[in-house]
Amino acid sequence: MLDLKFIRENPEVIKKAARDKGEKIDIDAFLRTDKERRKLLTEVESLKRQKNEVSDKIGEMMREKKNPKELISSMKGVSQKIVKIEAKVEEIEQKFKYFIYNIPNIPHKSVPVGLGPASNKVIKEWGKMPKFKFEPRTHVEIGQILDILDFGRASKIAGTGFALYKGLGARIERALLNFMLDLHTKKYGYTEVFPPFLVNRKSMTGTGQLPKLEEDMYRLKDDDLFLIPTAEVPVTNIHANEVLEEEQLPICYTAYTACFRREAGSYGKDTKGLMRVHQFDKVELVKFVKPETSYDELEKLLNNAEEVIRALELPYRIVALSTGDLSFAASKCYDIELWAPGIKKWLEVSSCSNFTDFQARRANIKFKSKKSKKLQYIHTLNGSGVALARLVIAILEIHQNKDGSVNIPRPLRFYLDGLKMIKSA
């Protein structure tokens, strides 16, 4: 959520930001709604003051044994007016909230302007692309050969868009999660948390998934709770409605969670194998930082996620997202993409974003500045450090051998009793 005063004073900036992000929001209509809302609030407050003053006068007359009949009669009309205006205020408040919660964050000046992936910029490449002396298999084929992935039975259990990991497939998944959590906590000093996988509507609104993206979420209608699409939601809301001290900052959390997404808009997209699943595992990185350090902290966050990929010896590239590819709440975002030679695609495994004070305003997260002694909204950042299942795709397809076996990356061997290769039985 943006600062209301800033929106009022900079409507053209907001309009440009919405256009650049491809968001359809009528800022002029919002400003008219805001103006009408303020007018009605002023009017109702004036009438309430008048009512209080007359009530005091009626009390005074009664103490003096005077008849306040005329004043009482006049106050009935005022009370009726208040009821009428308050009904209008309630109606316009709903319109106001709709607008304020649907105005997107403003892209940082360094973000490439454009409405689609074609405007994204590759800013870094790392590692050598693999050269095979055979036609590389897809992860689906490898999973079948090694008997570590079973999509047929997953579909029987839950439907399409789910995966069943078996044997060493399940152990690889667990090894990856432990490796990433150990790396981020021991090397980079993140505090590990294990949050709920269900959150309430207020939490989802705080991080910006609601109201805009509700159709992509799994909702429990009887309880109005949501399965989390990412650990960003519960972890960011750890400090909702709190005031932090400046010396606490930055606060850095890492968390493993399962993630759940309906992928309502994925019709026609590539959904084979692990490409686009409704449930996947992810290690998330979340930061609460001072405003003046947030873009430096974004670069550090990106490097922390990159370290996972480098350690696993996977070639990757970093893409600076254009305005049209930014999420609704982000001001700037980098994607880390891995090459999958079997399916011949670049796969996004991490998005590292700075949300500035956008989420903090929605979730009411502030800190007390030692210098000014004033309360300020904090800046929040998050990134995948990193996400499965696409990481598994890259590992299986990059580290495959001609016979269908897969070399296990060195950092994972510690978690697999020294095992160096997955072979078919």
Labels describing this entry:
alpha+beta; 3-stranded antiparallel sheet; Helix Hairpins; single chain; BirA Bifunctional Protein, domain 2; 425 residues; 40% helix
Describe the structure.
This protein is α+β, with helices and mostly antiparallel strands and 425 residues long. It folds into two domains: 4-100, Serine-tRNA synthetase, tRNA binding domain (Helix Hairpins), CATH 1.10.287; 117-422, BirA Bifunctional Protein, domain 2 (2-Layer Sandwich). 40% of the residues lie in helices and 20% in strands. The chain has 13 helices and 16 strands. It has helices at 4-9, 11-21, 27-63, 69-100, 139-146, 151-158, 168-187, 201-207, 232-236, 294-311, 358-363, 390-398, 410-413, and strands at residues 121-126, 191-193, 198-200, 219-220, 225-227, 242-245, 251-260, 279-289, 316-320, 332-340, 345-354, 365-368, 375-377, 379-387, 406-407, 421-422. It has an eight-stranded mixed beta sheet. A three-stranded antiparallel beta sheet has the order 3-5-4. Helix 3 packs antiparallel against helix 4 (69-100). The chain is elongated. The protein starts with a helix and ends with a strand. The model has no long low-confidence stretch (mean pLDDT 94).
